[in-house]
Amino acid sequence: MTRLFLLRLLALIMALTPWTQALADDDHITIAAAADLRSVMYKVVASYQQDHPDTRIDVVYGSSGNLLTLIEEGAPFELFFSADSSYPQQLVAHGKAGGQPVPYATGHIVLWSASIDMSDVQVADLVQPRFEHVAIANPQHAPYGKRAEQALRAAGIWDALQPRMVFGNDIAQTAQFAQSGSAQVGIIAESLAMASPDQGSYVVVPPELYEPLLQSFVLTQRGQDNALAQDFTTYVQGPQARAIFEKNGFSLPDAAGQ
Fold first, then answer.
1. Which one in 45, 119, 197, 206 has a CA-CA gap of 20 to 30 Å to 188?
2. Which residues contact 113 (CB under 8 A, 6 or more apart)?
3. CA-based angle 223:226:229, to the nearest 5?
4. What are the pLDDT digits (tens) for 212-221?
């Protein structure tokens, strides 16, 4: 994704978000969330709003690397939920954060197919002709794509698969490629595979093939004095939100030994 595209996206976000009002409004926040959270974050937000019905929480999804760039360019986000702890740490290092990163979950990658039974498939099997195209997220800015590359390299098939690779801008688009048939298999987030249990088939990629996907959130400079943003971070670390993450394809940091 080009810098020009990111700048255009930033302009669109700022045009659609009532950011000037939100500067002084503790009843509204906008969250930048990694694409693997599409099937989970709305559940967490809905659960929170059951006890806080007068709040407004908007969520913008994308790859963690692209969201980091948008925040550094001035996008009006109060919170950043990343799929990789390194990106919130970069925000801190660049003086754009309003606090320290907090781990909230550990993600997992899976091999998912809409048309092939994946129950006995191993990563090394992806070189077989039946997998005409293999979709992963772009490793340059998507943490799940980076872990997919690591798993393929560990299995010794990264170079062999190059002519058949299809790259998504983020893990959600990668899942769409696999679902539509543009690829026979996608290496996607378990959270997205679990979102549609009646569709497709998947098998978990052995965690020893890639670096742990410890995911963290951080308050932005914009969110550090926002009471709703601060309260929501407390809620995310509580038992109700943790239970939602655990039921939807994530391990809790403590359970993962982090």
1. 45
2. 178, 184, 185, 186, 200, 201, 202
3. 70
4. 999 999 999 9
Q: What is the pLDDT of residues 229-244, one digit of tens each?
A: 999 999 999 999 999 9
Split at pLDDT 50, 70, 90, the class of 86 is very high
HSE, side-chain direction, 13 A CA sphere, residue 62? 20
- Given a contact cutoff of 8 angstroms between Cβ atoms, the answer to whether 212 and 223 are in contact is no
CA 27 to CA 4: how far, in whole Å? 32
**What are 70's strand-pairing partners?**
none
Residue of 199, 139, 202, 200 lying closest to 171 (CA atoms): 139
Paired tokens of 56: 């407004």
pTM of the model: 0.88
First-to-last CA distance in the chain? 32
9: left (phi over 0), alpha (psi -120 to 50) or beta: alpha
CA 75/CA 25 separation, integer angstroms: 17
Cα 187 to Cα 171: distance, rounded to the nearest angstrom: 9
